[in-house]
Amino acid sequence: MSTYVVGFNGERLDRIAKKTLQTELQGAVEAILGANPDLGDIAASGFVPGGAVIVIPTTFAPPAKASQVLAWE
Q: Which residue, 1, 16, 39, 60, is most buried by CB atoms nearer than 10 A?
């Protein structure tokens, strides 16, 4: 696992996920929260305060997209 240090102004958790995991969708934010159990309490206001060290999961892989079957196919 790698770590990410939040800048001095603080950052939103979805922006951190976008920077580190290349997406803020498909469970990326949840994966970061899962790797950092106390982060939910720290970021309750929407921002992670500056200087916080966040563990970034290296095993994150977005789930495969479900195939869509249309009713007329």
A: 16
What is the pTM (predicted TM-score) of this model?
A: 0.78
The single residue listed with the structure tokens 């920077």 is 19
Angstrom distance (rounded) from CA 33 to CA 72: 41
Tell me how far CA of residue 56 lies from CA of 1, 9, 10, 43, in angstroms: 6, 20, 17, 15
Summarised one tens digit per residue, pLDDT across range 43-53 is 888 799 999 99
Chain centroid to Cα 11, Å, comes to 12
Residue 47 β-bridge partners: 12
Residues 56, 2 contacting (CB under 8 angstroms): yes
How close are the terminal C-alpha atoms of the chain, in Å? 44
